[in-house]
Amino acid sequence: MMFALIDCNNFFVSCERLFRPDLSKKPVVVLSNNDGCVISRSNEAKALGIAMGAPYFKVKGLCKQYGVQAFSSNFTLYGDLSYRVMCIIEESWAHMEIYSIDEAFLDLGSLTPASRHVFCDNLHQRILKETGIPVSIGLGKTKTLAKIANHIAKKLLNTHIFDMTNQEVWLNKIAVNDVWGVGRRWSKKLLQKGIHTAADLAKTNPKFIKDNFNIVLMHTAVELSGTACSNLEYREKKQSITSSRSFGVLQTEYRYLAEAISAHCAYVYQKLRQQQQATQHLTVFVQSNRFRNDLPQYANAIDFRLIHATDDLCYLTRAAKFCLRKIFKAGVHYQKVGVLISDFKDKNIQQMDLFNQPGDDELAKTERVMSCLDEINRKFGRHTLHLAAEGCGKPWAMKQLLKSPNYTTQWGELPVVRLL
């Protein structure tokens, strides 16, 4: 077997630089929701000592001093560019596992060593040419070795492709805490037992690892020695979908919480429609800021079982607002509300109900309306058409003072090219 891990380099930063060539070779950071913490850094920002997860208010002075460009997270942009990258990979090779928004595993076992390198080089060039996103590719006999090979290519050799085959000596240069899946707690315990590098872990008796840690770490150790414990995993449809965001400013009024709940319903509805499923269970939850001891604390959730499975946004929104009215408490400064849907059914298979079965005409009408909504938003950009229940002003929205335009998904925000 032979696995390849394709990883987009500093993905969020690369997305921001794509339409800002003036930021090439300059320090850039991307911030989390509400501009809280650093979640992506350019190499130049890393060189300045800006740590991953650092609160922005702590590094704001450093950013100003060295001219670091900061961006609010723009997940609409990142998600669209990720989709384009993954489509190119899938077109190039069918045996693929999407691991995260910026990573994918490939099973290249059917290729010869020479053809593997040619394939990876061509794929790297195609992704860069068609999306502008730079990637690194690591090759190894197992997924864990491919992950380490990618780390070596990106962090140690500054190259696009690296193959771990017959180069296990590199494991001596990888600290055990840099091994995929080894967390801070495990790495501390491994160090206490004299296991300092990936090579040490690979040589350790698997039974010792299982007895002192667990079977997951044992599989990691076995994979480091070159024996694959897992193959590609093909994504199944989600069993539940959640949408929740902290408010930019604490909210006390019911109407603003209702608008936020409606917006969350629109998000889970979109994901549900993509899966071609319907939901029969809805959960709404609210939460105050537990760190504000000077304010009343409150958190609650309510479950609601729908009469019949549906993917009707209007119906879901009405049900969610009904639930919110049941758990809303006046005088509380709310930090977050959210919606979770579960108990999915195949939308093409209807469970009949003796008393509340909707008619065929009603179902057909609902499907036409929802399909029209989907088509308009697909053509002109997400949120072009939405329910009035979401409101317009949105004082509850996340704090995104440094957000870039949605260059690829909104007609009104397309980049403009000027001839000089």
Structural notes for this entry:
This protein is of the alpha+beta class and 420 residues long. The chain has three domains: 3-7 and 82-224, Reverse transcriptase/Diguanylate cyclase domain (Alpha-Beta Plaits), CATH 3.30.70; 8-77, MutS, DNA mismatch repair protein, domain I, CATH 3.40.1170; 240-390, Dna Ligase, domain 1 (2-Layer Sandwich). 39% of the residues lie in helices and 20% in strands. The protein is built from 13 helices and twelve strands. The strands form three sheets. The protein has a five-stranded mixed sheet with strand order 5-6-1-7-8. A four-stranded antiparallel sheet has the order 9-12-10-11. A three-stranded mixed sheet has the order 3-2-4. Helix 4 (75-92) packs antiparallel against helix 5 (113-131) and helix 9 (206-212) packs antiparallel against helix 10 (215-224). The longest helix has 21 residues, at 254-274. It starts with a strand and ends in a 40-residue tail after the last helix. The relative contact order is 0.11. The model has no long low-confidence stretch (mean pLDDT 91).
The proportion of residues in beta strands is 15-25%
Q: How many helical elements?
A: 13
Structural class based on helices, strands and sheet pairing: alpha+beta
N-to-C order of helices and strands: EHEEHHEHEEHEHEHHHHEHEEHEH
Based on Cα principal axes, name the global outline.
globular
pLDDT averaged over residues: 91
Based on CA atoms alone, the radius of gyration comes out at: 25 Å
Beta-strand segment tally: 12
The assigned CATH architecture of the largest domain is 2-Layer Sandwich
CATH class of the largest domain: Alpha Beta
Describe the strand arrangement of the main beta sheet, using strand numbers.
Answer: 5-6-1-7-8
Uncertain residue segments? none
CATH superfamily of the largest domain: DNA polymerase, Y-family, little finger domain
Q: Can you tell me the CATH topology of the largest domain?
A: Dna Ligase, domain 1
Euclidean distance between termini CA atoms: 53 Å
Overall number of domains: 3
How would you sum up the major sheet?
A: 5 strands, mixed
